[in-house]
Design goal:
Elements (H helix, E strand, L loop, with lengths): L1 H17 L6 H12 L6 H10 L6 H13 L3 E6 L2 E6 L6 E6 L5 E4 L2 H9 L11 E6 L2 H24 L6 H13 L5
Parallel strand pairs: 3-5
Antiparallel strand pairs: 1-2, 3-4
Helix pairs in contact: 1-2, 2-4
Amino acid sequence: MEDNSNNAHNVLTAYLNEHKLRKTPERYAILDAVCSFTGHFSLQQLSERMEEQYFRVSRATLYNTMELLLKVPLVVSHSFSQHTVYESSFLRPNHCHQICKICGKVTELGTQQVETVIETMKMKRFHKESFTLDIYGICSTCNAKLNRKRKKIKEAEAKSAQKTVGGKTPANEKSKAKSNNNNKPVK
């Protein structure tokens, strides 16, 4: 991780020099914390990681630095369901995710086949740098829960159908008896 962090530092330093921005210890500490994550993280998790490393930064510094890292781009943001998460894009700029529409679980997928297809695509007047592919569906856990619910509903319908004898239910019998009483001639 040390080499990755140093390389990320070099990329950030080049960007800061090019845009005549200050090289602050906070920016590099936040970048180190970002590089320490192996997957997605929220700003809250990043803030907690910074505190664990005994480097406190204000919320404003954290937000502003993340905006900067998104521009470099050393970080990529993803909006899943109702929350935004971030991920280091330094070593892997391309991302494929499968996202469960029921529970919101996000799983990172290998992208080699997709990368090959996208790399060979010809795009008019456009230079591609990276991509994110989000595939929405239902995870196996939620699918199993849905199947159990469906099975219970079918079983309940089957029991209900068994109680019905020749289309007659106890409720139907009572209503027929009432209507038969109403059809008797009045004396």
